[in-house]
Design brief:
Strand order of the largest sheet: 1-2-3-4-5-7-6
Number of strands: 7
Helix content: 25-40%
Strand content: 25-35%
Structural class: alpha+beta
Order of helices and strands: EHHHEEHEHEHEE
Largest sheet: 7 strands, mixed
Radius of gyration: 15 Å
């Protein structure tokens, strides 16, 4: 097993974190960069480092100092639209810790990085004290994504069950 340092991102980590994120949206999601979905990737500092209740974590490979994985949290609940209204009402902005950008480079997967990163995000949310729920959505067509999130939380809405649904799977993960 490789050695990684998991920590809060610094400005020096942002290019590496952005690279992990963009590689993921192009390779794993097949969408490429879509501004309305991925705007935070361009401004990681403004999205996660500057706001006090937000955070960006990185897993840095001790061998070469490269960013191997990312995980972020912000205080924005799911917006309606495009998400179902009942989710926006259940997970309002300000009271919801939304888990985002939990991405691991393919060569660094199966090392427990995503699980460790999510654990630290949940600890961050619990320490904040103002979050009442942790929410996320995922693309279940990405290999391993659905099983990973089911191991940590509870599916609260499956858009695959809706006529014309986007296929997105929504989860709540318990706060510590």
């Amino acid at each position: 097993m490789r050695d990684y340092c998991i920590r809060t991102a610094t400005p020096d980590d942002l290019d590496g974190a952005r690279s992990v994120m963009l590689d993921t949206v192009y390779r794993d999601f097949g969408t490429g960069y879509v501004p309305r979905w991925h705007r935070d990737i361009v401004d990681l500092d403004g999205a996660y480092l500057t706001p006090v209740r937000h955070t960006l974590l990185v897993a840095v490979d001790a061998r070469d100092g490269s960013v191997a994985a990312t995980a972020a949290l912000d205080s924005r609940g799911p917006a309606h639209p495009p998400n179902p209204r009942h989710l926006a009402e259940r997970y309002p902005s300000g009271a919801t810790a939304q888990l985002r950008r939990v991405y691991v480079r393919p060569g660094d997967r199966r090392q427990g990085l995503a699980r460790q990163l999510v654990g630290r995000l949940l600890d961050f949310a619990a320490t904040d004290g103002g979050y009442h729920a942790a929410y996320l959505h995922t693309d279940p067509t990405v290999p391993g994504a659905e099983a990973f999130w089911r191991s940590l939380g509870k599916a609260v809405h499956d858009e695959r069950e809706e006529p014309g649904g986007q296929g997105t799977l929504h989860f709540e993960v318990p706060l510590p």
